[in-house]
Amino acid sequence: MTLPLNCDSCALPAFAAEEASPGHSGKKRPQVLVVDDDADNLQLACYVAEQAGYAVLSAKTGRQALELIGHQAIDLLLLDVVLPELDGFAVLKRVRAGADQALMGPRSSQALPVIAITALASEADQREIMAAGFNDYLCKPYSIQALESLLARYCPLDNPAIIAPESPLTSQR
Predict the structure, then answer these.
(1) How far, in Å, CA of 5 to CA of 86, rounded?
(2) Fewer CB near the terminus (10 Å): N or C of the chain?
(3) Quick check: 34 and 58 in contact, CB under 8 A?
(4) What pLDDT does 158 receive?
(5) Which domains occur in the chain, in start order?
(6) 160: closest CA among 11, 16, 53, 48?
(7) Residue 65: closest CA among 50, 83, 53, 51
(8) Is 166 helix (H, G, I), strand (E, B) or coil?
(9) Which pLDDT tens digit goes with each residue over 24-41?
(10) Rounded CA separation 172/159 (Å)
(11) Cα 74 to chain center, whole Å?
């Protein structure tokens, strides 16, 4: 199946994602950074997040992601685990090591939520992902509803400063 997606915001400069969306009364939309080296996966995740009402930034490498995180207030990070050069585990380690105000956006007392997006689906892989410090994970291929659910859980549109309760995905382990 092929879905024609036009995710123009994924290609826009970072400052364009700061604009308020209609229906959010001039407030800044929560900003999601999507990191995936596969163009189709990146475009789909960007499209879903944008359609759900989030401001979206994208990166194809771990290094690009770290650069954006260092210069943008990110509210949620959707991070592919298998990336060239600097994989998702290394990116997460650097984010967690430098988890200060610059990396937290409006979450002044909480760490940046990081969701692994991965094709690594074995129970051992999932345990490794969670042990590494990811807040949750989403196995590829995933449904649009599953991604929307994680977006809403970890970065609610009505109050992005609230960290959602434990995910059903992680609470059933």
Answers:
(1) 28
(2) N
(3) yes
(4) 80
(5) 9-163 (3.40.50.2300)
(6) 53
(7) 83
(8) coil
(9) 445 689 999 999 999 999
(10) 26
(11) 9
Tens-digit pLDDT profile for residues 144-162 = 999 999 999 999 998 545 4
Distance of CA 77 to the CA centre of its chain: 3
Reported as type and span, the H/E element at residue 130 is helix 123-132
What's the whole-number mean pLDDT along residues 91-112?
Answer: 66
Token pair 């991604």: residue: 147
Structure tokens, 58: 């994208």
Question: CB of 172 within 8 A of CB of 129?
Answer: no
Q: Which residue, 65, 67, 62, is CA-closest to 33?
A: 65
Q: How do residues 70-89 score in pLDDT, each as one tens digit?
A: 889 999 999 999 999 899 99
Q: From CA 44, how far away is CA 34, in angstroms rounded?
A: 10
- The tokens for 93 are 């380690």
List the structure tokens of 63.
Answer: 């290094």
Residue 132 CA to its chain's centroid (Å)? 16
Burial class (CB in 10 A: 0-12, 13-18, 19+), 132: middle
The answer to whether residues 41 and 58 touch, using CB atoms and an 8 Å cutoff, is no
